[in-house]
Design brief:
By secondary structure, this protein is α/β, with parallel strands linked by helices. It has 2 domains: 193 residues, NAD(P)-binding Rossmann-like Domain (Rossmann fold); 222 residues, FAD/NAD(P)-binding domain. It is built from 18 helices and 18 strands. The strands form 4 sheets. It has a 7-stranded mixed beta sheet with strand order 3-2-1-4-18-17-16, sandwiched between helices. Strands 6-14-7-8-10-9 form a 6-stranded parallel beta sheet. The protein has a 3-stranded antiparallel beta sheet with strand order 11-12-13, with helices on one face. Helix 1 crosses helix 15 and helix 6 crosses helix 7. It starts with 10 loop residues before the first strand and ends in an 8-residue tail after the last helix. The structure holds NADP nicotinamide-adenine-dinucleotide phosphate. The site of NADP nicotinamide-adenine-dinucleotide phosphate has 25 residues, from helix 7.
Amino acid sequence: MTSLGTAENPLRVAIVGSGPSGFYAAQHLQKQLGAGVQIDMFDRLPTPFGLVRGGVAPDHQTIKAVTKVYDKIAADPTFRFYGHVDIGTDITHEEMGTLYHAVIYAVGAQSDRKMGVPGEDLAGSHAATEFVGWYNAHPDFRERQFDLTQERVAVIGNGNVAMDVVRILAKTYDELKGTDIADYALEALKKSQVKEIYVLGRRGPAQAAFTTPEIKELGELADATIIVRPEEVRLDALSAEDLERNHDAMAEKNIAILQEYARRATSDTGKLRPPKKRRIYMRFLTSPVELIGTERVEKIRIVKNELYVADDGSLRPRATEWEQTIPVGLVFRSIGYKGVALPGLPFDERSGIMPNQQGRVLQNGAPLPGTYCVGWIKRGPTGIIGTNKPDSIESVEKLLEDLRAEKLLAPSRPTRAALEALLAQHKTNWVSFADWQILDRIEQAKGMAADRLRVKFSRIDEMLKALAERKGIKEPSGD
Ligand code: NAP
């Protein structure tokens, strides 16, 4: 038998999840093995690209353009996409072991972290990730309701997701119309009564997680003013020392921008300028301690924090006696995503990732043969899209080492025919990459007709129906 990983005896690899980390893993396998690999990528949704489609803000189209790279990876003859197939349900993890020499989990972080404060579960209190999924037409969040008749909103957290949520809440209809925001979200936001948005960061401006372009954008909105308190963006002694030591150029730029916003607010006072419809209050060193309300959120109680040096040398927040209550009718917690366990596979509940060593999944401390992870389920929900490339290369390199050491799985039926025979039993309406391209064209055509970038499908049954209609028949999909 010719050696595994050659055109005659290709290495069969499954990638579970079709976001950036999955695609970069596929790309590295293609580069290293050429025709010696067959890659089957699965997604439980009929549409590929993970958070690029369902997470990246609709007004950030230049970031979304990265899918052109993924299209090229998908066009390679080594690659197949099997959308609308849920690994663990439609095909079990045990069955995967009979079909593939290696499985790479690229499932991301599908839940969110909670604040752990009283009142967090009141109506009107939401995870930012739900709102993000909703305005991005993600089928899981399509039916969520957000009461946009409320005039005051709090967004908790100082990361880029918080910035996205604030921008989408603060932008005008005209600013959003040309994007690919979900059509129902565009209509709901058009009627939004939101006037005041409080962004609550628990540490100071020097420790904020948002990046410079994102904080800059908040100062450039058509009908929203950003308001920053000068005393909250003045650099304290601990932060100044920390910045000096770590040469954090991004934090320095962020602070300069925030200080400019603070000056803007002061110098604007008394000027005859038509007031903007919305105000964004950026508050620092504040933590929510309670959401208050009877039926739904009516107020948020916050404390003022001070910074102290923790044992690991980082600057952490500590509550002071000072408290304030702000009337708000909507709260979005934007304090980070969290990974979800895959049934039957190792998972570290505390950190929300699959335990792993450079991408090799570990079970009881030892590598689980032929099982790898990449992206947020490997390292946690950090970094930008590009961070995933070296991260995925690292995991694939470990897989290739194991290939050379003959430590991969020994599947009994390592062929696409065997996979598709199994799918024919369990999941007849799976979606190929060619099918997705049909959906893509329909979305773009609908967009053109509405003078928009695209009008997204947001329901799985509508996607499947559109595909069946295009093909003229209701039959199992296939490339
Ligand atoms: P993130 O960057 O980790 O930010 C989380 C924020 O929540 C931090 O400000 C954190 O403060 C705060 N936080 C955590 N626990 C808190 C608590 N109990 N109370 C109050 N605040 C709390 O996470 P993210 O915004 O979800 O973004 C996830 C990743 O996606 C990031 O790497 C981000 O850069 C990336 N992303 C990028 C873009 C873009 O490039 N445009 C857009 C969206 C997301 P501490 O720092 O004090 O912990």
